[in-house]
Amino acid sequence: MKEGVKDVNIPDLIKQLDILGDNGNLRNEEQVAIIQASTVLSLAEKWIQQIEGAEAALHQKMMELESDMEQFCKIKGYLEEELDYRKQALDQAYMRIQELEATLYNALQQETVIKFGELLSEKQQEELRTAVEKLRRQMLRKSREYDCQILQERMELLQQAHQRIRDLEDKTDIQKRQIKDLEEKEPSPMACQIPKTENKTLPQSSRHHVYIT
């Protein structure tokens, strides 16, 4: 506990001051001091309630931001998995094309290749090779274009998710700093002379910090 600070129940303390103020034996300046003290405590109680309400709202907002950030982290994980899958599919497609190319090339090398019952001439074989090569390149180009488009779209979504996560982290840090500032705030000490009263045991519930000079 800090020096000069006591844990008190503000509503009970106000009630005790009201009871003390009803004492007809008090001097005018003592009654004025009691009224001033009651006013200060009432304002302090309202101020503390406002701080507690603001702190609760900030805690709730921070929980929502953390939930959003967790959700975007999951989305990020899904996108990364899909990117890996697309890359693997692209590699497999390229390997399959190479296998087909090798199969066609071997077939063209056979001396028994027949077209409509006749052997192909060297010119016809060359034309067939050219056509096969052209078709292979077209298939490969279209496959790469499609996969590149998909990868580009997924990369853009992933970048957006990364940016959203960074924004949420910044907002969460701001909320944490605001909560820390509220927790460190205490009512400013207000000078008011309160007549000495008999020591009474105060309830332990609804305890707040208040400066008493």
UniProtKB/TrEMBL annotation:
GO molecular function: kinase binding; microtubule binding
Keyword terms: Coiled coil
Coiled-coil regions listed in the entry: 48-185
Protein name: Janus kinase and microtubule interacting protein 2
Species the sequence originates in: Bos mutus grunniens (Wild yak)
Gene: JAKMIP2
